[in-house]
Amino acid sequence: MPSSFDLKRKAVRALTALLATAAFTAAAIAAYPDRPIKMIVPWPPGGGSDSVARIISKRLSERLGQPVVIDNRAGATGLIGTDAAVKAVPDGYTLVFIADSYLVSPHASPKVAKYDPRKDFTDISIVGYVPFVLVVNAEKHPGGLAQFIEEAKKPSSNLSFSSWGVGSSGQMAMEMFKAETGARLTHIPFQGAAPAMTAVLGAQVDALFVPLVVALPHHRSGKAKILGVAAKQRFSGAPDLPTMTEQGVGSWLSWMGVLGPAKMPADIAARLNAELKAMSEEPQFREALIKAGVDPSYTTQQELSRFVGSEYDRLGKVVRDAKITVD
């Protein structure tokens, strides 16, 4: 049986090890970052989301004094990259640039998306909102939003809409539009926003909810027609376009943000949040996001966590009501 001296000696050793670990952790946080940071992007290079992520990573690299390297992990409607972020070591050296579709996947693909957005991430900040627009083929639908809704509500309506996949933000926006207005449109998914837009231009489908930056060049050329921006206020990058709110239809904004794996050191998460806040106030940075079709924004970590919780519940209802399944 160990003596009281042996027990005291073991206690001292344990305390010493604990203090040493705490000191090492504190030193690591104080030195953060002392090596490159990886930012996972769950989409392929060259797309709109990837372009925005590169604007974020470039400026964040400059502010932190270390490279923030983009790691594209495309596939499975963003699930491959999101899963990699969930499983990453939570040391602040792996981040994920996320869009709100990660809140949809656990509802639409519960057998594949086994993460809980409310528990399996460290919320850092929203970086911006992406104004979606309802765009139609200009020749088939020369009227305005009211006329399109009237046509789509007819029992004989055979109108269709495209998106870049089942459970995508584009489908979610249209399902909310249908639920509010009573419009009848059949979903035809494509592999990507560009093919979905091409289908509208070619009159293969009637309509599409897509980020403004994708539809605007076609609207300006007259090949397509934007019926409204899904927002409460006009987007500064295209102030001539009316919002759907102005026309009596509810709005829905897609958002993008930066997260980390769950249980990141609080000081490191706070540091990253502070950097993103400072970036959101820089005129040059804001202008770069606006040109990319993003309305710059910022949230505290606590605000983002509350928002994620409420959006997770709201989007879950949309998925159930529309009977969206990806499995």
Folded structure, characterized:
The protein is an alpha/beta fold and 327 residues long. 44% of the residues lie in helices and 19% in strands. The protein is built from 11 helices and 11 strands. The protein has helices at residues 4-31, 48-64, 79-87, 105-108, 145-153, 169-181, 193-201, 212-221, 266-280, 283-291, 301-322; strands at residues 37-41, 68-72, 94-99, 121-130, 132-137, 160-163, 186-189, 207-211, 224-230, 254-261, 295-296. The strands form 2 sheets. A 6-stranded mixed beta sheet has the order 2-1-3-10-4-11. The longest helix has 28 residues, at 4-31. It is globular, with a radius of gyration of 23 Å. The relative contact order is 0.17.
